[in-house]
Amino acid sequence: MSAIRVQGLTKCFVVKKKSAGFTSSLKSLFKPETMVKTAVHPLDFSVEQGETLAFLGPNGAGKSTTIKMLTGILHPSSGSAEVLGCKPWADRKRLAFHIGSVFGQKSQLWYHLPAADSFELMSRIYELNRMDFAKRQEDLVERFEIGPYMNIPVRKLSLGERMRCELAAALLHRPNIVFLDEPTIGLDVVVKHKIRQLILEMNREEGTTVFLTSHDSGDIEQLCKRAIVINHGQLILDQDVATMKRELLTHKSIRLQLLEDSEPLSMPGVETVEHTGQTMRLAVDTRRVSMEAVLARIVAACRIQDVTIEDPSMEEIITHIYARKAGVGVL
Ligand SMILES: Nc1ncnc2c1ncn2[C@@H]1O[C@H](COP(=O)(O)OP(=O)(O)OP(=O)(O)O)[C@@H](O)[C@H]1O
């Protein structure tokens, strides 16, 4: 059975037109002119129960608007959506018992209360049986290793500690689907890894469907089997992540800050994009050379002060998708 089925889903907003100049601004204050902005064009896709889907797109592409329609927060302008057999905006309350959500930039835990109090309140909201709640909480606390933080006000926790509590809270009522919006944003590498492991574990063991938005290609590669890319509210790619990785996530960028001037690095599969004094930027074609080999070569050839490794930006990936559709190579 499909966990999510979307057909011709659209969302338009009526927005005020911005006028330039003092007179026009004054006029629009009394008689505002409006225009219709289409945030989501007719969108069609479905997600199977237990799937792990990355829902991607650049800023303003329409991801949050789509998630808001799928969780019942927004009514669509047209089209239909079924989430676990419910029409989200009509059955919002019923659906809330079966879905969970984590928004990396927003907390669903009460900020001034310890997480334990939020868990208690949520158990009442979700009408959990006392015994089930106690057992589930114990399991999640152990699994997410959040025992030491449960009785500290959430505002005093580090971002990583809070995110583990957030995720555990979202899973308290055993949701069939979790909507994760940038769940690892701002976290360090170790905590990111831990959070990803926990999400995968829940997907494997409880069959939880994962609907993820992220700008972090590590989240996409490690968590999801399938990716949908939208741009300007339109679906432009629906493909498995392994293929996407092979075809689109093929380049990494290495930025180096050196302690002393060095010769340009010459290596097959590595292009020096920028080299001024002690800064260097390299583009690595990971199909031709492994990052391990490139980093080993850099360490042998240069004295490094700092190194940053970046994945292609969402904008670069989108340019590539369009170019590929048009039959032009870009990378
Ligand atoms: N309530 C609203 N009123 C008017 N326009 C809106 C409203 N909500 C969203 N939009 C517009 O709809 C478009 C899609 O926004 P949305 O927040 O869905 O994008 P997004 O893909 O989630 O972006 P981001 O990655 O930056 O969060 C944007 O152009 C945005 O300005």
UniProtKB/TrEMBL annotation:
PROSITE patterns: ABC_TRANSPORTER_2. SUPFAM superfamilies: P-loop containing nucleoside triphosphate hydrolases. GO terms for molecular function: ATP binding; ATP hydrolysis activity. InterPro entries: AAA+_ATPase, ABC_transporter-like_ATP-bd, ABC_transporter_ATP-binding, DrrA1/2-like_C, P-loop_NTPase. Residues 24-257 form the ABC transporter domain. Transmembrane segments: none annotated. Keywords: ATP-binding, Nucleotide-binding, Transport. This is ABC transporter ATP-binding protein. It comes from Paenibacillus thalictri.
